[in-house]
Amino acid sequence: MATIIDVQDVTKRFGNVLAVDHCSLTVEEGSITGLIGPNGAGKTTLFNMVAGTFPPSSGRILLDGEDVTGLAAHELFARGLLRTFQIAQDFSHMTALENLMMVPARQSGESFFNACFRRGAVLAEEKQTRSRAEDVLDILRLSHVKNERAGNLSGGQKKLLELGRVMMADARVVLLDEIAAGVNRTLLNDLAAAVQRLNREDGLTFFVIEHDMDLIARLCDPVIVMAAGSVMVEGPMAEIRQNPEVVEAYFGGGVQAEARP
Ligand SMILES: Nc1ncnc2c1ncn2[C@@H]1O[C@H](COP(=O)(O)OP(=O)(O)OP(=O)(O)O)[C@@H](O)[C@H]1O
């Protein structure tokens, strides 16, 4: 397996706070890699740097072996890296179907030249995009809400729609932030199944922050544990759960329960 994300000795300071401290980790292509750790361990800060929200204070981040340190989110998107779940407010007034149809990055309809001179081709492309978006909604069992505004969907449906955007975008590596938060069990099963299908059938790589340990155990291998800004240990969830250092730092030395009650 090739390394797709390579975080090398990355540090992030916010004033006096050392949020990420000389952290190194890799995500292998084709994996669903979990990132867990106690509150304040630095997971979100690390994600923000990998996704191009802000640059590290020091260290390097490689994507496919190429130095992408400090590149903006849209530049990373052009290289196939996408972060969810953050349905942009701008899109919340649009329907589920329209949200998906917006995704293909450079639709010919957006070009003035194409709009004027290749109207037939543009219309054909739009039809194709619509049909693809409808297929995606069908796969995600969202067809019944296709004409509903994204802003009116439930938390879980919004997350499914975000996965739909991933499917439309032809992303290669996807950063997922807390799939389970605020999602009911049925939709969570749909979400987990969609992630697994995208991973297995389309070869997508996922890098997942999650507090739901059962979901992590079900979806992720390997699991990386962060504590105090750097990696404590990495391995399959079954091993992680048994690691005394992890049990002490993460589960508070008690029963192996959820990180958050
Ligand atoms: N913008 C910021 N300014 C100042 N301190 C910050 C900022 N962002 C994060 N921190 C601090 O950096 C540390 C790591 O925070 P981070 O949110 O990355 O942890 P986390 O592992 O994602 O935690 P959680 O599981 O609670 O989301 C914390 O001490 C946090 O208070």
What would your notes on this structure say?
By secondary structure, the chain is of the alpha/beta class. It folds into two domains: 1-80 and 171-261, P-loop containing nucleotide triphosphate hydrolases (Rossmann fold), CATH 3.40.50.300; 89-168, no CATH class. The chain has ten helices and ten strands. The chain has helices at residues 43-50, 73-78, 96-101, 112-117, 119-139, 155-169, 185-202, 213-219, 237-242, 244-249; strands at 3-14, 17-28, 32-36, 58-63, 66-67, 81-84, 173-177, 205-209, 223-227, 230-235. It has a six-stranded mixed beta sheet with strand order 6-7-8-3-9-10, with helices on both faces. A four-stranded antiparallel beta sheet has the order 2-1-4-5, with helices on one face. Strand 7 (173-177), helix 7 (185-202) and strand 8 (205-209) form a beta-alpha-beta unit. Helix 5 (119-139) packs across helix 6 (155-169) and helix 6 packs parallel to helix 7 (185-202). The chain is globular, with a radius of gyration of 19 Å. It starts with a strand and ends in a 12-residue tail after the last helix. It binds adenosine-5'-triphosphate. Residues 14, 17, 19, 37, 39-45 line the site of adenosine-5'-triphosphate (ATP). This is ABC transporter ATP-binding protein. GO terms for molecular function: ATP binding; ATP hydrolysis activity. InterPro entries: AAA+_ATPase, ABC_AA/LPS_Transport, ABC_transporter-like_ATP-bd, ABC_transporter-like_CS, BCA_ABC_TP_C, P-loop_NTPase. Keywords: ATP-binding, Nucleotide-binding, Transport. Belongs to the ABC transporter superfamily.
